[in-house]
């Protein structure tokens, strides 16, 4: 160790000198065979990689005092860290290894400012090293660090230090564990004592809590946990369930191999095809002219012919010439995608077994997932109630660690308003992962402010303590749909999707059973569900506070996504219109399908307090399992009282697992809200990409700041787009928006909110006032709403056929469709926009649509 010590420079110091627990340098024992994917690709590399032995936890004698474990010295300095997927290369990062936790920041200054980019509990990670290339990999499952030291000496120092800290942390964990068990027995006794009226001994339990384990754990919490642990048999059930799954999976594997041997193997399995597409990032864009070697993001956009040519080539290599040589491409793909044609009775039997077993595995995994989520929830509740208790009993507010000048930072101001203390929240490495940021390097980074994880936790806690807004009093509108939604789990999406390569998913014609009884014009109106935020904005004098409400409104439009991933809205036909008058909310909206290629839906809403308009169009990016929707139009809001004109972009919406029933939606990216009338206030909102699969805790995070002209932060806010937004910098910190509770039985009704249920309601007094092009009069959508799925399906085909005919006729005449209520214009940046031409409401009143000529759409 000493010899290494002398080679340290300032940036690579062992802060506390030579540690007392001399780390045992475990000779790497076996070749790396598992762990990180990234290192598996070459045999040479596998050979040079070594997995460091698992450490044996040494229980110190008299080890019930954690202070007996000597904390190894801090190790800090620069290392190279591999960049986040999908970016390539390495960047220099400053790492600090302290008390078993490895943290990293951009540079040393950031460390001193407490700006941590990621952290990991080194004892939980598999550590692999490569002496030849000075590489150290830490793989904690969810979090994966690839690091490289600049010199061999530094490499050895880090490895040695990491070893010491791993050992320390494991020992500490063992102590915490025994302390915890001890506390549980204490608190069980205390519980007993309490029941016996012996309050004195309950107090003992409190002070005898696991100092250092659960921070100042109190009796109430401990007895709650112990009671829950005692009555909870779930973990055992989980283990059993998982064991069963394991067996089933081996059996499944055997059956699949048997089936393959029996039926002969196929060129590609569906899984392989998905993977290939994913690798190639096959874009579902319209085919480009043959020179389509255009770069989109970091990957190549393939035209349909190229892409499919690619698929038919087993080498995924030069593709440009292949288009012509593949005769019937859709048929080819279809044949690859349809389920393997099993002919023999034996094969059929195996196939049935495979299905049955897969379902069993699925059911098991679901139940395990559910159990674990419940346990986690319980733990979190206990944890939170403990924190609440703590801060309520503390005389001093939580310590503000980094005092700052100027506007308050999240960390500072949060400490004043939130219950949870920072230390507890930052402690868990599993919450701070590196995989946030867009999957696509071409789009803006969605990595938010450092420390966002704990900030969001706090925001979340505050939001959950805010009562739901009072449910609007009866509007006289319907509160449910006439019929529940059809089960569409049987519809084979795979074939539909692959048969429509080159088209927008949202615009692809699908069986009516996949549709929801609202269309994309109505969904534009749905973004006004929380229009009261715009009313508030128009009545807020302070421009920065006003911006907070505009931001909350921009976020609120995304909240429906939580419940709306099983059905797809109807595609409006060209010329279709939709009006929505909401006296109760004080606005009226008109929307129209203004363009077919590319499909564009435009809308405009007016109220005493605001105007709102946008034209919606988007591109798709298909990654094999998920589909990214990249909207291109801007959203506009004007507030009459202050003459503001706000404009903002939309973020990416990703449909994860688009082909399966595990589908869910995620939004990520950055929104910038500008006031075109004055540049003294802008707002940036980050929709954070969730950092890893399967965890609910980091899903749907949003963080935002309101900036003044000089770029100083005036307000900060954050939360989750499905739970609400809290702003702690307002004169009275508060939850600025919280979604309305879902109506009863919403799952039976397409996951619709009450507002969504009202969108397609057609009342007798309204009917004669609507133009015949109004979506409410569209028969197939109405049939679906009434539960007549087959009829809706037939009608939908008819309507689509009428549209095609109309288009053909127009082309024959050399004419172009002219939208009736919107006109094309250019915005201040020269972008095409669709603005209202102001005729709709006038015509409606005089002479009334019944007396005007309306195009026939159905
Ligand atoms: C294959 C089918 C059944 C899967 C379901 C697809 C659904 C979830 C898709 C189809 C069209 C999609 C919508 C298309 C456009 C937008 C505008 C964007 O700014 C927010 C997301 C939003 C509103 C999408 C949400 C998800 C969506 C509704």
TrEMBL record:
SUPFAM superfamilies, per the entry: Oxysterol-binding protein-like, PH domain-like
Cited Gene3D superfamilies: 2.40.160.120, 3.30.70.3490, Pleckstrin-homology domain (PH domain)/Phosphotyrosine-binding domain (PTB)
Gene Ontology, cellular component aspect: cytosol; endoplasmic reticulum membrane; nuclear membrane; perinuclear endoplasmic reticulum; plasma membrane
Annotated Pfam families: Oxysterol_BP (PF01237), PH_8 (PF15409)
Composition bias type Polar residues, residue spans: 1-28, 463-472
Domain PH: 72-167
Parts forming coiled coils: 785-812
Chief location of this protein within or outside the cell: membrane
UniProt KW keywords: Cell membrane, Coiled coil, Cytoplasm, Endoplasmic reticulum, Lipid transport, Lipid-binding, Membrane, Phosphoprotein, Transport
GO biological process, one term: bile acid biosynthetic process
GO molecular-function term, one example from the UniProt record: cholesterol binding
Residue ranges with Low complexity bias: 429-442
Annotated signal peptide: none
InterPro entries attached to this UniProt entry: OSBP_sf (IPR037239), Oxysterol-bd (IPR000648), Oxysterol-bd_CS (IPR018494), PH-like_dom_sf (IPR011993), PH_8 (IPR041680), PH_domain (IPR001849)
Disordered as annotated region, ranges: 1-39, 429-485
Location in or out of the cell: Cell membrane; Cytoplasm, Cytosol; Endoplasmic reticulum membrane
CDD domains recorded: PH_ORP3_ORP6_ORP7
PANTHER family: OXYSTEROL-BINDING PROTEIN, OXYSTEROL-BINDING PROTEIN-RELATED
The family this protein is said to belong to: Belongs to the OSBP family.
Protein name according to UniProt: Oxysterol-binding protein
Species of the source: Lates japonicus
